[in-house]
Structure prediction request, 1560 residues.
Amino acid sequence: MINGERTIARPLRWGMVGGGRTGQVGYKHRTGALRDGTYELVAGAFDLDAARGRDFGTMLGVNGDRCYATYEDLIAGETAREDGVEVVSVATPNFTHYEITKSLLEARIHVICEKPLFFTVDECDEIAALAENNGLIVGVTYGFTGHPLVQQMAAMVAKGMLGEVRIVDLQYTHGFNAGDDVDAPEAVKWRTNPKTAGATFVLGDIGTHLYYLSEVVLPHLKVEKLLCDRKAFIPSRAPLEDHATVLMHYDNGARGRLWVSSVNAGNMGSQRYRFVGSKASLEWSDSHPDQLLYDVQGEPNRILHHGMPYLEDESLACDRMGALHTEGLGDSWSNIYLWIAEAIDAKAQGDDTFLKTHHYPGIAAGTEGVRWLENCVRSADAGATWVDFQ
Amino acid sequence: MINGERTIARPLRWGMVGGGRTGQVGYKHRTGALRDGTYELVAGAFDLDAARGRDFGTMLGVNGDRCYATYEDLIAGETAREDGVEVVSVATPNFTHYEITKSLLEARIHVICEKPLFFTVDECDEIAALAENNGLIVGVTYGFTGHPLVQQMAAMVAKGMLGEVRIVDLQYTHGFNAGDDVDAPEAVKWRTNPKTAGATFVLGDIGTHLYYLSEVVLPHLKVEKLLCDRKAFIPSRAPLEDHATVLMHYDNGARGRLWVSSVNAGNMGSQRYRFVGSKASLEWSDSHPDQLLYDVQGEPNRILHHGMPYLEDESLACDRMGALHTEGLGDSWSNIYLWIAEAIDAKAQGDDTFLKTHHYPGIAAGTEGVRWLENCVRSADAGATWVDFQ
Amino acid sequence: MINGERTIARPLRWGMVGGGRTGQVGYKHRTGALRDGTYELVAGAFDLDAARGRDFGTMLGVNGDRCYATYEDLIAGETAREDGVEVVSVATPNFTHYEITKSLLEARIHVICEKPLFFTVDECDEIAALAENNGLIVGVTYGFTGHPLVQQMAAMVAKGMLGEVRIVDLQYTHGFNAGDDVDAPEAVKWRTNPKTAGATFVLGDIGTHLYYLSEVVLPHLKVEKLLCDRKAFIPSRAPLEDHATVLMHYDNGARGRLWVSSVNAGNMGSQRYRFVGSKASLEWSDSHPDQLLYDVQGEPNRILHHGMPYLEDESLACDRMGALHTEGLGDSWSNIYLWIAEAIDAKAQGDDTFLKTHHYPGIAAGTEGVRWLENCVRSADAGATWVDFQ
Amino acid sequence: MINGERTIARPLRWGMVGGGRTGQVGYKHRTGALRDGTYELVAGAFDLDAARGRDFGTMLGVNGDRCYATYEDLIAGETAREDGVEVVSVATPNFTHYEITKSLLEARIHVICEKPLFFTVDECDEIAALAENNGLIVGVTYGFTGHPLVQQMAAMVAKGMLGEVRIVDLQYTHGFNAGDDVDAPEAVKWRTNPKTAGATFVLGDIGTHLYYLSEVVLPHLKVEKLLCDRKAFIPSRAPLEDHATVLMHYDNGARGRLWVSSVNAGNMGSQRYRFVGSKASLEWSDSHPDQLLYDVQGEPNRILHHGMPYLEDESLACDRMGALHTEGLGDSWSNIYLWIAEAIDAKAQGDDTFLKTHHYPGIAAGTEGVRWLENCVRSADAGATWVDFQ
Prediction:
């Protein structure tokens, strides 16, 4: 159980690119980073509007001198200091991830980047090589897998409690884009423009969360082929999609189905995961993250609660609030940020043994997400046909 | 609201083929038929074991002389009487539906038949013509659409409360066949054998319920093309399936996805329907049939309860228990049987005006179910490819 | 599992007093009685308006000659026939229960009466003696205890699966009387008038259901003392109550609390029962009667579903729909009516051995309900003070 | 919406007494304080074991010199520094609250103290006067009222959306003390000992949360009289209670009932609040804090979700994660800590205008909790009789 004791020697000097006053995601990064004494926010290029960014950064407690107009300025300014940032989070629109990450890594700064990571697997591979060469970590903020009961699912599957996995049912839908985009906020506009969002809208924006979480729970399964059927119910979003269904065949014979949509009018349930095995199933939703359904065929259904002694060690280890007390998304993000801090610390110390078994969403996970998107788009653009997973 | 007053002049003289002591479905037929004074059980060929069938029929209150060994005997015996049966329910394995129905219709007896109706659309068309020529009704026991809140959904969609329908999400899964069939009961064995079940297992057994209910709610939508991916996780069931996913494109541009499975280990939630429109969505499950979720984008989610004055007339008209008091599947079956009785009565009296607008699951609905199955199988057998709906 | 086979030799000739066209409860009686071939509706005094009652009875299939204007006429007419009614259900306002029941018993007709049974325990005792002397049964329609999972709770408590029972938490509330009674229907008016309703409104109308169900589950516990605090939020209902809280001390040291109200605005959840033991708890609601929560301290919470093989025999024996298929209140009423029919049949045959262990809500259960009401009123009228249970 | 921008000029220098490595509650304090840049943890007397406390504090990032053995040492050490702590949180057993708080206030340090605040109202009054005289704030960690939907309830009641409040139904139960205390951890032992816990166990430990939250939602209602029935199902806990029921009469005629227990075996639902008015009701549980049920009589039930634009400003103002993303108990604590920081800042600046309307749990709220406990004990000790609220 996490109680705030620092698991690394001292706080990492941390900066942000993006995540300014008007967005939602910046606060998730900060609340994720600042609770465990593992990060100290010392610099930032928070906003395209430099004055606003500086004002904002100051209100976050960052020295005005270290509130920069651009990420280039941030790199220049911080690399010039002895106490410059060691790690920077990138919370900007998708199309900027690659160049900012690359620049940071070249400046020998660790990176924590939003998903979807980059536009292509090629870019991912290039960045992975760069990070490796420079001895740096690239973390990816798949923010939902820090929930203790996600780790519980992974541990139960690993122990064979489900038997052979047969069916994977994944859903992440909401209805916030059910109307058109005429008066949409900036965050919607760039997400529906291929130039700024990449080749997908909801597949990348929310579908990659589903896919990564399924990888965490089912690390031994690989997709062999898939079929993606996507559509823009609001025509102006085409060729990007606001709705998609993906069917997947796994290498063990399992079948997967996945649904992402931002036009599921009125739906607040959001995410739903069901992993069906030959003996039992697990079902979890981020909307009630403290409960996990464990359904053994022929027995009463069971509801497992976070923080309870009957859970696996992997789940209890990352619990923060304790049984009866609700964990929220902020707690999950804190775990993700903590795990990445531990990776950065180990990398800095050359502790490869630790890194070999340490679980966190890194460049490999980010790359797999982009690979999955590439396969989805290839299938969809070929008329929603089956494609071999490449 | 239904209070037991007879809506037809006198009870129909009713018989059963199948539905004997050892099965579950027979009781559903009887509880459906016998509550409103619209049917009187007077004859039956309840069991392949004639003596057991006679004993069973007697315990149901049927005169021993009218407990027959076979359906042929029943037809012979009953047509010889002045007070012979007017309508017979067929609750036997799939492969017998066609021949029994045909024989009954030729003997000028109305038929109420289990789903899936027959093996082919050609058989359906032939039977439809025969029924029409002989002035008879063929009802089909799609037992879930008698729930008042299913009628509520249809009425709300008809009034345009959802806007344009965009997404249809259908699921009927359970886990009772998660294990193999070595010691399976007879009802499982004939359902997994193509000779007795037809070309499908779960698609026909439970998927047709999903498809019919969606037709009731969305009568204006037609499937243009579909893709069906099916699999037998228990290999002995092949070529039939214990799991299938179907994607559908509707003529208005809507997208559908459907999941049927009997290997969803531990799943007791069973059916889930979600109809997503441009303004709002409806979600209903047969496991809590008294509640209907009505999700208007941007407003609090609403839970509608059966029997409440704010519901549409179509829903209140078929309510039996009244608000606060739970309706069960038996109540839904009673509505189905009542509606079929009213159709038979109107047919007998030549009341075509009534029949034109009277809603009940008849031969057309049964035919559409078989047509959908044929399209699913065609797609699946072609490698889970898209096929035009024919 | 119930499949409609008659458990008694022939249908009982059955009549009704009350339960006419405009009420809700009459249909519950009929649907309860008419599914299993154990009752045949042959006579009735359905309505204070004789013509309407005759018309209604005819539409139920009763011969017009046996649709009577009054219960006195019914008794006179039916006792004059060789095939007169054997049992009559009384579904009239509370103040008439005693005199109608008495007259029926004196005419040697079994009675099935609505709750609360009579106004006083003295009346109950008198009727019990009369029934005993005349060899007749008095059944009471506590309609919720026929749910299979109520029987499951009783069986689990009996097996000691809860340990020592410590806490009993009972709730039956709704909001249908949140507004005043200016335009209230007749059924509300007589229920809020002491002359027609007796000394209580919601305590008798819905509270007796809670108390009886708790007796079924906890037959070994006796109330030693109680405190009742009641209030009429709509003043015109005083001295009767639309809200009451009852605290109870049981003879084993257990503590009970009970809440009844008809001004719980918007509450549709209705009934909630929780039985807490030293090892585990059970929780059930009539609004989702197919699920039972079984909470063992320190283990995952369990949800038991009706009809599943892991349930106790007592529960499976009265299941009608089978697992996955919802049971409703109509199914529970059918069980109650069936159990009373079996009691009447045994009584008629002098089978005292059967009656000794046969479970059904009879005169003793009805009497205990009235006794509980008397104690509640005594406490409330003394200023919500503790009274010894007498 | 909260995004981490500091609402006060600079972080408060903050210390802790108690909250060491082995407890759960310390982390809640830290996670509450450290996310918004309003507190900086600079000192502590974390543990009775001085060495362990120093080690622990160091791991939290506190300078070893400022990790003290006792609270007296902390006061001595910190008051000697120019940059000494400005505010200290007291997370120690109940019996120490009074003396530690008093000493801190005398040393002119603001205090944030655990509930139940002190043993008697007299102590509370004395401390209130001391704080007032010294210009200091005493905050109380009623940690659940920081949930945005609690503020939503208060705002809706204030706007009259419920009509006249009639019924208040409060429950906080769990089963973690269902067994005896033979091997219980220290935190249970001191809580069940009158010398260290005060005059109550569960009433003070969890009941005060219920009472305070109800005060936040219903500030205009006052308890006029109450009745408390309490019991120790585990006899060694007597005279303290592990189960209690409290009935309350409010000055507007409303009725309240409250249940606290730590022997509700297997119960994980924990808290339940229902506020019933003449027009509508609100229901909320901390176990799903992101949903609020809003039940208008005669309309579909509504589920409100945190972060949605249709909510009241008071709720949106303290939202942290935004719609669709779960808030947890940590977020609620952060709001409480933030509000207290703002009070301290205003007090330091003599901004009485701000303080007059600023909402936070302070000494008055703590006092009311102790007053309620005194009344409960007085009633219980008099044999669970009604007592006028004093």
Remarks:
- Chain C touches chain D through 45 residues (CB under 8 Å).
- The two ends of chain C are 39 Å apart (CA to CA).
- The CA atoms of residues 180 and 235 of chain C lie 9 Å apart.
- Chain C has a mean pLDDT of 97.
